[in-house]
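Fill in residues.
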């Protein structure tokens, strides 16, 4: 029996969930949960999606993500693969870590969005000691919304959901907290919801993130334009940039591979055809090095910022499936 096609929208807001293989433990302890959050942050920086919420339990986890023009299948594949490698190494095991493919559903409007948001944040209620205080569960973003916990990985954008409740951020936070803890759906909740603003934001639900520094990104930028940008910014001649085994431009090539694979979504095999020199294993290492550069090196941080500023453009609302 063929599996159902995944519905995708370039700028959709998705409820995503992952579960362990055969419903086994996916996160055995806090170290596993922190590792997953670090991996999520890594891929957020590379693919530029926005995380509105998360809740990481034992056998599964939930995410609420705005794709921002990125293909969720590609960045979720990277997240799952990275965590599976860690998990198998950590526990000296082999085989599948995740059960089946990840679940995803696009939120239809802000009524739907708020119900999903409350559902995710109420997941810890079945854990002993958290039934009436889900905000105290450390590995849920609800504690970040309430102010109990810091967002130590700088993952969460709280503003979008809070602004649905009005422009007064303090009152909006109180309303949202009361809504989540009521365990009601939004249609039954009497919480002075700003209906006018809700209707306005319903028209914006599939528009670029209102709180981003840049508009959403069209990922089909020509490869030639990306290469031209790097050559121009680095003042490295094209002949040197594409020369085989040129150690003088190793860092720039790693940065370029990060852009081609992470931003544009090219396969490693397609990038190998461009540089005519690397194999799949070296591609992965170069990609990881590119990530390190934008995290740790001021020059490449600034170069990444300039790239994003140059290539930020509105994207379409057309649905696709896979």
């Amino acid at each position: 029996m063929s599996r159902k096609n995944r519905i995708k929208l370039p700028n959709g807001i998705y409820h995503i969930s992952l579960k362990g293989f055969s419903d086994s433990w996916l996160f055995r302890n806090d170290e596993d949960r922190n590792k997953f959050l670090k991996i999520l942050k890594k891929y957020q920086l590379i693919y530029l999606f926005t995380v509105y919420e998360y809740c990481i339990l034992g056998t599964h986890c939930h995410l609420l993500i705005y794709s921002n023009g990125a293909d969720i299948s590609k960045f979720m594949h990277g997240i799952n693969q990275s965590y599976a490698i860690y998990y198998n190494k950590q526990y000296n095991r082999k085989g599948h870590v995740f059960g089946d493919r990840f679940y995803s559903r696009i939120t239809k409007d802000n009524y739907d969005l708020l119900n999903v948001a409350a559902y995710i944040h109420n997941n810890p209620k079945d854990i002993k000691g958290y039934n009436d205080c889900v905000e105290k569960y450390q590995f849920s973003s609800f504690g970040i919304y309430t102010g109990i916990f810091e967002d130590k990985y700088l993952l969460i954008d709280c503003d979008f959901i809070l602004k649905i409740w009005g422009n007064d951020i303090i009152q909006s936070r109180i309303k949202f907290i009361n809504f989540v803890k009521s365990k009601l759906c939004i249609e039954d909740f009497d919480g002075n919801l700003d209906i006018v603003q809700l209707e306005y934001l319903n028209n914006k639900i599939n528009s670029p993130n209102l709180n981003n520094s840049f508009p959403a990104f069209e990922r089909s930028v020509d490869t030639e334009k990306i290469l031209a940008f790097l050559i121009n910014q680095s003042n490295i001649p094209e002949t040197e940039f594409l020369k085989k085994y040129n150690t003088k431009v190793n860092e720039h090539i790693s940065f370029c591979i990060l852009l081609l694979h992470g931003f544009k979504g090219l396969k490693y095999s397609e990038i190998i055809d461009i540089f005519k020199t690397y194999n799949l294993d070296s591609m992965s290492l170069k990609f990881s090095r590119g990530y390190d550069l934008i995290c740790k090196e001021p020059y490449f941080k600034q170069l990444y910022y300039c790239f994003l500023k140059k290539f930020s453009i509105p994207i379409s609302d057309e649905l696709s499936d896979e």
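The chain has two domains: 13-203, 223-311.
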